[in-house]
Each structure stands twice: as structure tokens, then as C-alpha cells.
Write a structure and sequence with these properties.
single chain; alpha+beta; 5 helices; 7 strands; elongated
Amino acid sequence: MKENRIVKNAVILTIMAVLLSAILGFTNQITKDRIAEQDELKKQKAYTAVFEDASFEETDELTALAASSKEDFEAAGFSGIVVTEAVAAIQNGETAGYVLNITNSNGYGGDIVTAIGITVDGKMTGLSVISNSETAGLGANCSKESFTEQFKTIDSPEISFVKGGGADHVTQIDAISSATITTTAVTNTVNAALHFVYDEIGIQ
């Protein structure tokens, strides 16, 4: 009897473990799908913010360039930066520019993920921070409109930042106060994006 009870308990525990694993797996899949859906919506919102009134198309060429971007950036002096996705911004049936989804691992708190829009003429149409882990009230201000609005008027193949204000907002941006590392990371991300569009895609 004692042995039968042990076997019975073991079977019950096994069944419970299998059921719990199935429930956890099902819950995880639902959560994973919802997170992926929210991430996609957030990304698309960022794309629209940096290139208004455009639809976005992937091409084999842009996908291939994005896949090799890490190595290309390192060769150009932009370490820790990668293009996660590059798409063409289509307006009136023609390619008006490009939107790059770029991750820079050199932020103060780690990865800073941005969407950057650049026209076929090399003018920036905007920058939107998709995610960051920067310090609240300091580097995290990189996602504020007061900072990102500066990039809508950039018209240069390379930019720099100015501390204390006074940037021309064509070749320069104003740094985030007390957040030099974050500002440097964002500036390098923009310069890497400009390099990608000018030198890898090959705009004139």
C-alpha cells in the first residue's frame, strides 16, 4: 500500500508539473506576442514621426547593407553601432529618403535605440528615440522633443554638439545638460546614419 501511495503521489506531481509547464509556456507565448506587437507599433510610430506622410518599404539591398553595417561602422570608426533595419521612405510613389533603426551600445546606461530619417538629398527629417536606459532627468532627456526637434534641420554629412547652447542646428546640436556621454552617443549615431546613407547607400 505504501509503495502504491508513493507511485500515485509521484504520478500526481508529474501531471501537475506538466500542466504548470504548459500553462507557463502558453502565458509566456501570449506575453511574448503582445510585447512584440507593442514593439512593432512603437517602431512604426517612430518611423512616421521622423518621416511624415511616407510609407516604408524594405528592399533586399537595404536589408543586406543593414546586415553588414556593424562591420562597416567599425571600419569607419563608429564602434558599438548597428543598423537593425533600413527602409525606404516612399512619397508619391518614389523614394524620398530612408529611415534607419539604429542601436548604439555606448550610452551611459547601455543601448540607445533611435529611428533616423534622411532624405535622398542628405537632409535629416527627424530623430526619434525608440528606447533608452539613460539616467532619468539627465541622459533620458534625449527622448524629449526639446532635444529631438533639433535634428529636423540638420543638413550636413557630419554633425557635432555644442555645450551651453548656441548650436546652429544645421551642422551642430545643443548638448543635453550634464549628459555628455549620452549626447556623444546620439551624435555618433547620427554621424553613423549619415555615413550609412552617403557612403553605403550612395546618395549624392
